[in-house]
Predict the structure of C-C motif chemokine.
Amino acid sequence: MKRAVFPVFFDCCTEVAQHIPKRWLRRVVKYERQKSDDLCRIPAVILHTRRKKVCVSPLNENVKRWIKQMTRCCQKSDPEIWKKRKLRRGRKTMRKDHIFAMCKKEICATQ
């Protein structure tokens, strides 16, 4: 009887969506990057929501922008400092607060 030394299962995306609505990005709990190597054949970004996993093209502009915002948020040690800054225009302040409201501890922990 032969037994596998390391029984491992790989969960790879076989298809990617080219377009994803922006409102879906608000629901993302964590994300992963899938590289195209021997195990998985296509590059993808796997977005995890509470109930689903969605495979998206890494070339999608909305996803690129969202990942960039999340990495910026996670690099800032204290987002409260940014909230306390006073900007001349109220609109910019709202925009900054909205970005940091999207920063989630779960997403930062997975990077």
